[in-house]
Amino acid sequence: MTESDFPRIIENEDGLDDERQLFDWAKSHEVRLKALLAEAGAILFRGFPVTTAAHFDAFASAFSYDEFTYADSLSNAVRVNLTPRVFTANEAPAEVEIYLHHEMAQTPISPEKLFFCCLQPAESGGATPLCRSDWLWSEFQAQHPPWAEQFRALGLRYRMEMPAEDNAGSGQGRSWASTLSAQTRAAAEEKLIKLGYRWQWQQDGGLVTQTPVLPAVKRLSGGAESFYNQVLAANLGWQSAAREGQPPVTFGDESLIPSAAIEVLIELAKRFTQPLAWQKGDIALVDNHRVMHGRYPYRGNTNRQVVVCLAREAAND
Ligand SMILES: [Fe+2]
Asked: pTM for this structure?
């Protein structure tokens, strides 16, 4: 596997021309495609007959993954539901960059697989950068063993601020009620206790939470490891939204991550990142445990539409 094979591209060589044929094709190639994903980290399906969220939903359903629902989890991105399993990817404004992250790695429960679908590309910009964080971690360990050991031994704690009301102007702007799928403070606290979080209600009605210690590294099938966390996004993107003097992520013992280590990680990530420049109808299947994603800013038309479906490995896989 070389960096030029990432993401792997599969084109519509069989000339499939409707969504029923596409579903049957995906179903009949499911085992091969999943094996390819384990090696490639991300697959781009290009030129297939996909023009609506419903087509995309049908394609994703061919893979017999379990659905991942927000009710089980904590996501702070503002999204809109289009079909039962398809959401808008992130409602943040065009000029806001979404930095590289693993979907929900800052929470105890996160989806293993992500499907993205481009229903409408931007006129200019708006690519989705994809970064192999197994390659990133391997290189970081080789270059900086003491820092790597700190990440591995200490893990991470995340501090999150959830506003009283949804704020669509931010990439992480969901209110606490929406993030926690809770209507009352009591219900919110019940969920936080279940997840092992600490919390503090704010004077303005917002909520600040702190996660339990979460691993910074994930062991993948096949024995490799990835840098499965939100250190990059938290430092590049969440920092500006955080209250002064309170870093959004620390080591698990609450000591500071050295800024020089973060700089090295940011630079290394560039080396293992490929931008996915969307074409209409593209679908990307991403191994969320192995690959980070983000969103570059865009201009021109404001109706860029990239939608997402989150999935979990089925229990019997
Ligand atoms: Fe995301």
From this structure: 0.91
**Residue 58 near residue 82, CB atoms below 8 Å:** no
Domain residue extents for the chain: 3-131+275-312, 134-268
Pair of tokens at residue 9: 């591209």
- Tracing tokens 């865009």 back to the chain, one arrives at 298
Query: What is residue 282's predicted lDDT score, i.e. its pLDDT?
Result: 97
Ligand 1 centroid distance, CA of 26 (Å)? 24
CATH of domain 3-131+275-312: 3.60.130.10
CATH fourth-level superfamily of 134-268:
Clavaminate synthase-like (3.60.130.10)
Instruction: Tell me how far the alpha carbon of residue 299 lies from the centroid of ligand 1, in angstroms.
Output: 20
What's the CA-to-centroid distance between 163 and ligand 1, angstroms?
19
CA of 86 from ligand 1 middle (Å) equals 13
**Same fold for the domain at 3-131+275-312 and the one at 134-268?**
yes
Structure tokens that stand for 303 in this block: 């109706």
Distance 89 CA to ligand 1 centre (A): 7
Gyration radius of the chain's alpha carbons:
19
Q: Both tokens of residue 11?
A: 């084109």
Q: Is the pLDDT of residue 78 over 90?
A: no
Mean pLDDT of the 114-132 span: 95
